[in-house]
């Protein structure tokens, strides 16, 4: 048993009236001790549920990020023309609405905006459809690549996927606790703003509950991150909804405020104002989703096409490639109709195949 960890557990687990929040340094120590197995299973489980009940602070999330940054894997910096867009999406997947972000990533990369995604397999507490399975269905298997190979794919194609079970295996032991507890611990919140890329980046993080955005703002401000965007998105992702106005926060629009926080500028986007219907694409089966994506990339018009154009229009504007949303929507239509997005998918698949194939030397 670790007495150091026990003292940290006592701070967060002492009840509503006497519990205390951890400092950034304490949160970093607790995170590393859990990842490294220096705390006992009883201590780790107790900490996770107590911390969830207490609710994390932005400072604690900053400390947890410190722990991940020290022990976790990162793709190396690449001399791209634009900051890499890092899409933060819940690791426990989707169960109700079709994920659009893989197509968004392909569209962005086709237009010259590099993208990094990260995640794992079907994980608790939702055990929903993870992005890595969507990519596999499209012929791109990130799960078998070591980090060095992923780096090469990223440098060549502009898209990289940090597959946590392989690239950051220290996190694997924590998933069993999440399953047994049946609730997301604060780690699940922190993962949305984790940046597994060592170069200039723009973090995009989805969320469900408004207080989460304030925690993101505090944690990222403490880390000196000035380029970030928050999205009240579908199932906590950064996919923009079509059944309601999209609520977006643009970070770093001006100097820090008197509390030292990076300011957030509020942006509201109504799909109907851009000619889109108010209906999200439901998630039925993985096979059907893959068929819908492939049809969309082939230029067929559908409800999914509307979701794709709606999201791509925003992200092409956000990246600075297009001057406004309408121009972004038109650019996305052009990229799809010219077959450039489908070509990007093929390029990634072929690059992974070429990297994975053994090289035989003549005798």
UniProtKB/TrEMBL annotation:
Q: Domain Glycosyl transferase family: where?
A: 100-339
Matches recorded under Gene3D superfamilies: Nucleoside phosphorylase/phosphoribosyltransferase catalytic domain, Transferase, Pyrimidine Nucleoside Phosphorylase, Chain C
Entry's Gene Ontology molecular function annotations: anthranilate phosphoribosyltransferase activity
Give the record's GO CC terms: cytosol
> Which GO terms fall under biological process for this protein?
L-tryptophan biosynthetic process
| UniProt entry keywords in alphabetical sequence | Amino-acid biosynthesis, Aromatic amino acid biosynthesis, Glycosyltransferase, Transferase
**Residues in domain Glycosyl transferase family 3 N-terminal?**
6-67
Tell me, what's a Pfam family for it? Glycos_trans_3N
NCBIfam families, per database record:
PRK07394.1 (NF005635)
Return the protein name. Anthranilate phosphoribosyltransferase
Database matches in SUPFAM superfamilies: Nucleoside phosphorylase/phosphoribosyltransferase catalytic domain, Nucleoside phosphorylase/phosphoribosyltransferase N-terminal domain
